[in-house]
Structures are given as C-alpha cells and as structure tokens.
Design brief:
This is Polyhydroxyalkanoate synthesis regulator phasin. The chain is mostly helical and 99 residues long. The protein has one domain. Helix content is 82%, strand content 0%. It has four helices and no strands.
Length: 99
C-alpha cells in the first residue's frame, strides 16, 4: 500500500508542484479506496510535508548561491557597497571643503 502512495507521489505530485491541500486530497482518496490506512496516510502526509520543506530550503539556498555568483560574474555591486561608497565620497567632500 505504501508503494502505491509513493508511486502516486513521485509520478504525479512532484516534490514542490502540489500544495499540501492537494496532496492531502489525493491521500484521502487512497484511504477511501482502501489502498492506504489512516495512520499510514497521516505518516505519509507528514513525510511529504517534511520533504517539501527540505526541498524548499535546498532550492532557496541554490537560488541564493546562483544570485551571488551571477552578481559577481556581472560585476554588480550591492546596496551595502553603494552606501559604503556614498559615505566615503561624503567624507572626501567634507575634507575638500574644509581645506
């Protein structure tokens, strides 16, 4: 029974493609058809949610790393770097005005 649900998940749901509500609906359908017990369904849903959160975290970390790499490759500067330069220019302007 667990293999049926796992195949359903892997084939049709995708790790991040479906919302928890849609996954829950599919699992409830399996329970109603007698292909999965209620406790097994509850455990499976928790596992799916946990995997989804883990995949989401991994995905966001990958995006973050790629954005940093892209910024560096393109030679872009951050707001923090711009603010630092603005501060340096302001201090230099002040020094020049005081001379």
């Amino acid at each position: 029974m667990f293999k049926t649900a796992e195949k359903l998940f892997l084939a049709g749901l995708g790790a991040l493609a479906m919302t928890t509500e849609r996954v829950e609906k599919k699992i409830n359908e399996l329970v109603e058809k007698g292909q999965m017990g209620k406790e097994e369904a509850r455990n499976f849903l928790q596992e799916i949610v946990s995997r989804g959160e883990e995949e989401k975290t991994n995905f966001l970390e990958t995006i973050r790393r790629e954005l940093i790499r892209l910024k560096d490759d393109l030679g872009l500067v951050t707001r923090e770097e711009i603010e630092e330069i603005k501060g340096r220019v302001a201090r230099l302007e002040e020094l020049l005005q005081n001379k």
